[in-house]
Amino acid sequence: MYDYAIRFEEDSAPGLAMFCRDFPELNSYGDDRESAVSEALDAIGTTLSIYVDQRRVIPEASAPEAGEHVVRLPAVTVAKIALWNAMMERGMRKADLCRLLGLHQAQGDRLVDFIHTSKIEQLEAALKLLTCASR
Asked: What pTM was estimated for this model as a whole?
């Protein structure tokens, strides 16, 4: 669902450029394939943050094509995507989430901040409350 495929392109300079069909604005670079894959997680996190800043729904991953490498996101990141997309479906803002969960703004912001680590239990509780509140 959120395992994004990336492709590598060699350039005239040493190293590899990295691109993702699901996120046209994403590009990154690595000295070699191993470092490019490592950089991919950071690049995806940054791109997810841009989607939140722009209040855009985060797309599900397309099926990988031949020659692409699949980046498996951490469970916390996938839970944040699910929470963010649920908020977008309901037209909610971060402030609405904070009110629903009884959190201070900074605490609520971190739940959909892809650069900040959150506890999976907090995300599960937020998703549960959000699901119950929409019924």
From this structure: 0.89
